[in-house]
What we know:
This protein is of the alpha+beta class. It contains three helices and four strands. A hairpin with a 2-residue loop joins strand 2 (29-38) and strand 3.
Amino acid sequence: MKAVITVLGKDRVGIIAGVSAALAEHHVNILDISQTILQDYFTMIMLVDIDSERLAIPELAQQLDVVGERLGVQVRVQHEEIFTAMHRI
């Protein structure tokens, strides 16, 4: 199952490492990643592959909320189909 993860917050050292480590702990594979700094704000979008038999999106979202709190960023997880439907013109 694919999901889109977005990360937004004040730039600081360790954001990519923290989010990536949490994903690796849960056997989530990063398929694509884009990140940029907009003035002092860090933004990242990841397309990931989740083993749905191991982990559900709400569980992953809860784990990433904890990571985001520790890093001072907002982390959101959406199923790829929901993300695609929301952003269709």
